[in-house]
Amino acid sequence: MIEMNAHRYCVIMCGGVGSRFWPFSRSEMPKQFLDFFGTGRTLLQMTVDRVLPLVPHERIILVSNEAYLPLLQEQLPDIPRENILLEPARRNTAPCVCWAAHHIYALDRHASIMTLPSDHLILKEEAFRQAMTHGMDFVETHDALLTLGITPTAPETGYGYIQRGQPCQDAEGITEVKCFTEKPSLEMAEVLLASGDFFWNSGIFLWKADTILRAFADLAPDIAEVFDAGDDLYATDAENDFIAGAFPTAPSISVDYAIMEKASNVFVKTVDLGWSDLGTWKALYETSPRNEQGNVTQNCRLITKDCSGSVFAIKGDKVIVAAGLENYIVAENGNALLIVPMDREQEIRHLVNEVKARFGEDYS
Amino acid sequence: MIEMNAHRYCVIMCGGVGSRFWPFSRSEMPKQFLDFFGTGRTLLQMTVDRVLPLVPHERIILVSNEAYLPLLQEQLPDIPRENILLEPARRNTAPCVCWAAHHIYALDRHASIMTLPSDHLILKEEAFRQAMTHGMDFVETHDALLTLGITPTAPETGYGYIQRGQPCQDAEGITEVKCFTEKPSLEMAEVLLASGDFFWNSGIFLWKADTILRAFADLAPDIAEVFDAGDDLYATDAENDFIAGAFPTAPSISVDYAIMEKASNVFVKTVDLGWSDLGTWKALYETSPRNEQGNVTQNCRLITKDCSGSVFAIKGDKVIVAAGLENYIVAENGNALLIVPMDREQEIRHLVNEVKARFGEDYS
After folding, report:
1. Looking at chain B, which residue has its C-alpha nearest residue A322?
2. Higher confidence at residue B77 or residue A363?
3. pTM score
4. In what order do the strands lie in the sheet with A336-341?
């Protein structure tokens, strides 16, 4: 058992929706709430399981959307209700991070925070925990905003990249950040990969509460102002009423744009985590165990003939019988069924919009 | 309105199961009970609708299986309960025909009977009714067992064929039968089609009650004996108790084998009905209206890209989004989903058996 530092908090961002995995994920049941690998644990539960050796339930803060409170309480009954922050509007990650930092700072002026997405895959859990412990030690002793950079294994075009800069003398594997790069073309991604200096942007952030609050004040004053107005109210009974009025007035922007790309005290810890953001069916396929026929299923009752390279993501105990499907996505949940070649998955978003336009929001 | 002959009865055989349309048809909901064309009427209802100008509800007899009584009463509320004969065991068509003939003969010694499958498609309803009226006139005035032979339009290998013989002098379009031919090879089917003398065996039979009962006595005495034992009980309160004991002792054999292929007084009326036995998905596809993309659906909520030649048979108001499926069957009902190329539909039976063996009868 790792000895826990009582000032360490974990913020898990779990309010996102997304149509990329439609209809397996649905607007009322987004990806983080799904048991994507048929293991009996959802991505959100796996995220919590992963950090529990570092931070107890009492210091894990969930930031989500009001619509998902029942799911959160069902899936994570050990997280205290007061640790669940419910955004009254969708404003991307910067307002989320700023609110959570204020809330935690009100609880503990010396708090340090690891901020995590809730819907990513990390296969190397021990490497993750070592990196987080090392990273938290670093941000607690430096004026630093730290992000995890994942050692790239392929020229992925779906990820942002971070170029590492000067190494820190006193922290192995941690360097300054030279620059952030948006999702590259394939040619560019191959150059980035070959260089050895570029790492995937994991969306995992580490900082002290006061460091990130100062960064908002300096670099995103429009957001800082919104949340500073509630300074006496965080972690009190008045917090939610304040947030109900204030939160929707914050601009919608990511913490990467608002803070990380502008700050001068940004560092990256590079690490190999067996990580995927599970942003595409192809990523899910590539990171999932395959059955003898070379298909990925969520433990569903599947009989295939001459099918390979396909994902069968079906909710419930339905039987699927399929023949002659090579490299397809077959996904079903509730009132919708999707059958699309994997190399056309970028069309799914448009198709879902067409579904909603023709048949209504019940199908979103 | 055609003037009805009060001695004319209609027997509709509607007890069959079948796995060829699994999972759209299920053992608890076989093909005849399904609205296959999304018209709001099931194949069984369409069969009744088709004969109602010829025979009133009161003289339509349904022969089915005990398991389907609720479906029969739901779909055909105007058929009197006493007109529903429920077989206590599955014994193919000969015992079914023999029981129905006894039952009707007990009601009316002068009865004539048209015996119909419940799960076929007939597009030319007026030609059907004219043929039936003409055929009933014939069997009521001749010692004849009459079957309808369908003018073939393609070298189908899934149908039995009837070779016509000498024409009847006094009945246009009715000939003796030279022979019955089993499902042919493609080469043979092409020869049969080219000859002009071979017609598809429709499974539609016309006879007087006493003619068919004499035929059973002469040609299938093992069946006749079973049912003759109840001679005083048909159409009485004691009928069902008698049948419960007797019916399961009858041999399982088709009326074609037991009677038609052996009898010397067999005739065929040849006719073009726009008929299909809907025995295969391909037959369903070919006889169904197609949408703009060249696919067949049961009015389901379908969005396709680059799909053609496919059937989407989905129960309920599910949305289906599909891309890149050429000549596929996509069928779903309850706890099962099937996706198979249309040219592999002969494998469906085996696949269903595999499903039942691995996952249980709940999936049949």
Report:
1. B339
2. B77
3. 0.82
4. A296-297, A311-314, A328-333, A336-341, B319-323, B301-305
Model pLDDT for residues A45-80, shown as the tens digit of each residue: 999 999 999 999 999 999 999 999 999 999 999 999
Which range is least confidently modeled, B157-161, B238-242, B256-260?
B157-161
Contact B339 A323 (CB under 8 A): yes
B335 at A interface, C-beta within 8 A:
yes
Exposure on the CB side of residue B298, measured as CA atoms within 13 A: 24
The answer, yes or no, to whether ipTM is higher than 0.90 is no
What does the H/E/C string look like for chain B? Answer: CCCCCCCEEEEEECCCCCCCCCCCCECCECHHHCCCCCCCCCHHHHHHHHHCCCCCHHHEEEEEEHHHHHHHHHHCCCCCHHHEEEECCCCCHHHHHHHHHHHHHHHCCCCEEEEEECCCEECCHHHHHHHHHHHHHHHHHCCCEEEEEECCCCCCCCCCEEEEEEECCCCCCEEEEEEEECCCCHHHHHHHHHHCCEEEEEEEEEEEHHHHHHHHHHHCHHHHHHHHCCCCCCCCCCHHHHHHHHHHHCCCCCHHHHHHCCCCCEEEEEECCCEECCCCHHHHHHHCCCCCCCCEECCCEEEEECCECCEEEECCCCEEEEECCECEEEEEECCEEEEEEHHHHHHHHHHHHHHHHHHCHHHC
Mean pLDDT of A129-157: 96
Whether A354 and B303 lie within 8 Å, measured CB to CB = yes
Give the model's pLDDT for residue B2: 53
B351 touches chain A (CB under 8 A): yes
Q: Count how many pairs of residues, chain A against chain B, have C-beta atoms within 8 Å.
A: 110
* CB contacts, 8 Å: B303 with chain A: 351, 354-355, 358
Name the closest residue on chain B to residue A348, using Cα atoms: B321
Question: What pLDDT is attached to residue B170?
Answer: 86
Residue A180 pairs in a beta bridge with A162
Pick from B332, B358, B363: CB nearest A337: B332
Binned at pLDDT 50, 70 and 90, residue A2 comes out as: low
Please report residues of A whose CB lies closer than 8 A to that of B322. 338-340
Is pLDDT above 80 for A223?
yes
Classify A297 as helix, strand or coil: strand
Q: Is A135 exposed, middle or buried (0-12, 13-18, 19+ CB in 10 A)?
A: buried
